[in-house]
């Protein structure tokens, strides 16, 4: 059976058209991708710059606060505050300090007292002073 | 068919276009090939920037983490006179109130200067420094002032080009560079230990000055290499307004900040010492007074103070004499505190025992044509213990004679007199100990009472610490550890034994003798503490000026430690020229200061009270050794 010559030219033109469209789509997407990538780079660069500025600012604020805290906690400043506020704060005398000894080794305390080693000594020390 | 005239025109056009393309091609080859290198360099110079990233100088902390020195990020304000041009007077007047610099001085700096370069071209100076160490608030005020700078009442009437130039001045004529300011939050506290910094200025290859902070004294100088950190850099590109184009950043190496130095100094103890020295300064009006607090078992220095002192935050206003750390740089004859060397040496060599009796000859001893006197009272027979307790010069001289010059000289060196202690501070001196060959016949009687030798207060304090530490001399330790900016440990410094000076037995006997000094019949009775036994030695030496002793000028001192049998602290107090009318003996000057510092320091450190503890333990039946 002979071919239908009427539709032949259309069938021939369809393939190259698709190819051309694909090529165009490729170049267009490549172009768009390139631009998008450049925009993203610029966007990230701006973000980096902004965050670096923020980090530096926070660093400076942190430094300033650290310095302020250090100045406020200097021994001379604390002494001056205690005097100014007239709190009557003084350091305890050595005999006013009760020392709690860390538990070490085997207990020498009587079991019935149910006290950790060292506590008994403290209790006795405190009792003897009273 | 085209006309021949048209063909000619076509040929002409073709040839013209061809020639044009040839010229363009030549230009292209010229720019891209023949002049590539020079133009490429020029282009890179316009766009590429290498930004040096300065590290932050490390902090200095005390042993409890209190900040002693830190760095504040500040700016150096610079200007580009080539942009300002003839408008420098208006800019100077605007900046005068915010920068607090005279307008005329500013105008002199801002006035454009033209320099003839090697190629004969005239270039305008583009970089002048207006002010250093400007903080953020001041910089904001400066930029605000520049933004609102008014050059004339009706600027809109000016040409567009001129208006653009004025805007350039407002926005780009002033710029800032990063810099650091060293801040000492405690002011003068421990100033002689921390030291101070100075600026090290040099000119970079591009002609711009580069200023770097360097430690000049104290720990700032000793640990400079650790504190300053390592510089980083950034290779990047900038736009026409010199703003960085982050997207074109090629290399970016962050600087490594300086390490944090943690000292053995305790700010609390240092404050106690300095406040008590200030009281003593008022009471005795000396030329100087110095104090050192050491842990005898480790050699750690908890406090080191000198008066007069200075504030490293305001170095320009300080007296250079006040900046001297007298504890390590000043030497003097130690006087009677030196008796600890001769007596402990004699005890160690079994030349004498504590109970041996020494004839002090009624306080006058004739030897080699010279009469030696006792300073306090006239004594006859004294035990060796009492020779120390009463500080008899005759007794010490006789013990020295018994010991012999060679052995005495050896022990002087063993105790570290005549050599540097190795403290981590610059400017330490060795003291003066004459070689044995230069000793006169009298030297064997003079050296035992602290004459003919010169030592620093630190050397004497460490010698006393050696006795407190069972005869072992420790190296002074001032730095506890180094850590990085994240707080991770970088290096730890451990206590170091210098050498054994005397045996444990001799040291224990010496401690007994030194306890007698602080007993009711000693010279340092007023050093007694309520809760601790104290051992120590007073010292008074006449000052020598130009080789002659001068009346009414003395060095007086007291060096003591407590609790005597299990020492926690050794404290040395040294007065230079106290007002003799108010008392000049070590017992009158150094002892009261020692007592006050010891009481407050023991309280601050919560040192267990010796006397109460023993009583309580006796009550519970537990031995005192636990």
Describe the protein.
Chain A folds into 2 domains: 1-90; 92-130, no CATH class. Chain A is an all-alpha fold and 130 residues long. Chain A is rod-shaped. The model of chain A is unreliable at 109-130 (pLDDT under 50). Chain A is 67% helix and 0% strand. Chain B has 626 residues and is α+β, with helices and mostly antiparallel strands. Chain B folds into 2 domains: 52-85 and 123-258, Penicillin-binding protein 2a (Domain 2); 267-312 and 325-620, Beta-lactamase. Chain B is 36% helix and 25% strand. Chain B is built from 21 helices and 28 strands. In chain B, strands 2, 3, 6, 7, 13, 23 and 24 form a 7-stranded mixed beta sheet that branches. In chain B, strands 15-14-28-27-26 form a 5-stranded antiparallel beta sheet, sandwiched between helices. In chain B, strands 1, 10, 11 and 12 form a 4-stranded antiparallel beta sheet that branches. In chain B, a hairpin with a 5-residue loop joins β2 and β3 (67-79). Chain A binds chain B through residues 41-42, 44-46, 48-49, 59-60, 63-64, 66-67, 70-71, 73-76, 79, 91-95, 97, 99, 121, 124-125, 128-129, and chain B through 66-67, 70-73, 136, 183, 185-187, 189, 244-247, 249, 267-268, 270-272, 275, 530-531, 600, 602-604, 606-609, 612, 615-616, 619-620, 622.
Number of helices of chain B: 21
State the CATH class of the largest domain in chain B. Answer: Alpha Beta
Strand content of chain A: under 5%
Q: Count structural domains of chain A.
A: 2
For the record, the count of structural domains of chain B works out to: 2
The separation of the N and C termini of chain A measures 128 Å
The average pLDDT score of chain B comes to 89
Largest sheet of chain A: none
Q: What are the low-pLDDT stretches of chain A, counting only 5+ consecutive residues below 50?
A: 109-130
Helix content of chain A: 55-70%
Distance between the termini of chain B: 127 Å
What's the overall average pLDDT of chain A, rounded? 76
CATH superfamily of the largest domain in chain B: DD-peptidase/beta-lactamase superfamily
Cα gyration radius of chain A (Å): 43 Å
Stated plainly, the CATH topology of the largest domain in chain B is called Beta-lactamase
Helix/sheet category of chain A: mainly alpha
Number of helices of chain A: 3
Radius of gyration of chain B: 36 Å
Uncertain parts of chain B = 619-626
What's the overall geometry of chain A? rod-shaped
